[in-house]
Amino acid sequence: MPLVVNVGLNRKASRDYQSAGVSINLSAELDSGLINDPARLQAEVAKVYAQAQAALDSQVQAMTVTGTIVRPGEPGHMSHNGTGHGGGDLSDTQTRSEPPQEGVTVTGAGASTGGIQNSNSNNRHRHHSGTGVSDQPAVRQTRGGSYGGPVRPATESQLKALKSICRRMNLQLDREVHEEFGLESVDQLDVRQASALIDLLKERQGQVVQPRRWS
Amino acid sequence: MISIHSTTRNNHAHRGPMDGASVGKVPVNPSQPSCPSPAGITGKSYISWSQVSSYQLCPKAFEFKYVLRADPAFVPSSLVFGTAFHDAVARVSQADLEGAPRPSAEELASEVSQQLRASTSVPLKLAKGESLESLDALASRMLSAYLASTASHVEGTSICIEDVVRGVVDASVPLVEARVDHVYQRQDGSLVVRDVKTTRTKWSDDKVAESSPQLQLYATLLDRELEGLGKVESLEFLTVTKAVKPVVRLHQLSVAKEGSQNLVDNLQQVWHGIESGVFPARPGWPCKSCAFNDRCPAAIGGGAA
Lengths: 215, 305
Prior knowledge:
The structure holds two protein chains of two kinds. Chain A is of the alpha+beta class. Helix content of chain A is 32%, strand content 18%. Chain A has helices spanning 38-65, 90-93, 156-169, 173-181, 191-204, and strands spanning 3-15, 18-30, 104-108, 116-118, 138-141. In chain A, a hairpin with a 7-residue loop joins strand 3 (104-108) and strand 4. Chain A starts with a strand and ends in an 11-residue tail after the last helix. Chain B is α/β, with parallel strands linked by helices. Chain B has helices at residues 12-15, 39-42, 49-57, 59-67, 77-98, 105-116, 132-148, 205-225, 259-275, and strands spanning 3-6, 46-48, 75-76, 124-125, 157-167, 175-185, 191-199, 232-241, 248-254. In chain B, the strands form two sheets. In chain B, strands 1, 2, 5, 6, 7, 8 and 9 form a seven-stranded mixed beta sheet that branches. In chain B, strands 3-4 form a two-stranded parallel ribbon. In chain B, helix 5 (77-98) packs antiparallel against helix 6. The longest helix of chain B has 22 residues, at 77-98. The model of chain B is unreliable at 1-33 (pLDDT under 50). The interface between A and B is large, with 40 and 38 residues.
């Protein structure tokens, strides 16, 4: 049975009442034999993080070259809150909420949770990118504009469902999003994450949810 | 670049023919260099499936509605009823997605009734032998049949419910916008696009085939929009007949592998006609329910003198 490693990194910066963020969630399939070789496993996970880091750097670079603003539709475009006073620069105030070796989940394919989980007690993130494997990094930007990544932001019906479920279960949606994916806001959820979170919350309610295979 | 967001269906005639408020803010990629824009003709930077089918049905009616942006003389009850029924079905799908109890047929029918009676600047045109009360009863019967049907339960997880998808199908035609009734993901990861139709009679296989380009277009748009999530592998029309005993039926189609080029050819033909200003009248059965037949010289049965 293969091992699936899901890693996520994000950066967020704010300046002059504007905030901007970029995040990446990357899944990779590893040799199942690595489970018996922790040192090699950690090395492989570090490689995946390095790839994610490089992709994130590339996105940040694209954003900062033109003073943060990238035209909609271009790779690296992201939306900004506020009314456009000045420009935030991610490279100045970047924060990395998930340093390497933190918040890593390794699972057997087909399992929804389990396996090894390294977590920081102050910043515990569970990562779900579905129960399957994707070898494509999913770089995405915050919701509200055009987006260049292959995985799209959550649909309105998904967001509406998440809000409704959380209201019914007395949960704080942003908190759930942060705990599951390490994201700052529900607005950063992509369509796959939103679907996985809906399944997860419904499971917690005791509803039967069929596992799905992700492309 | 393709964008997606949710919207509430609105009766065009209630809002004015070119009011795009129901669509809301759909980000459009301005950096798409080779994609033509119909903004100078229709006031919009995209063409919708409704526009395409309207042009194919009667270019003159298209001109009245989308180019001249003329006020319609009336709004057919079938349009308001269909819109309200779609809203009711969307509510059911949304409740299923949320794991919440489904609204009852009575509750849904009450909402349809309210929409039929909503104040409007454009008069509602009832069909022969039809009344608001008979439409209320019809809504109740159809919604009861829908809720009781196994087809109302999708075998998967909903991704889009009444969402708007806009994207480039081909660089030779403008951005295309589609309102998608329902997209769900099956256990195997594949995506299914479903469109709901209220119909006077049961659909034949020919009717399904004739209507399939709409879903083929949606599949093309969604394959790009939902890249990374799954591929659209199945298309469905769910039909509910407007009858004493309504029949709910699911018509399943596969995504045509060769359909993409046919689709582009059709879109190119329509776009060429629009941009060339070719708007001939095509008199026929649609004239009866055309909201512009009072000023159309070619209209059959009650056209302009």
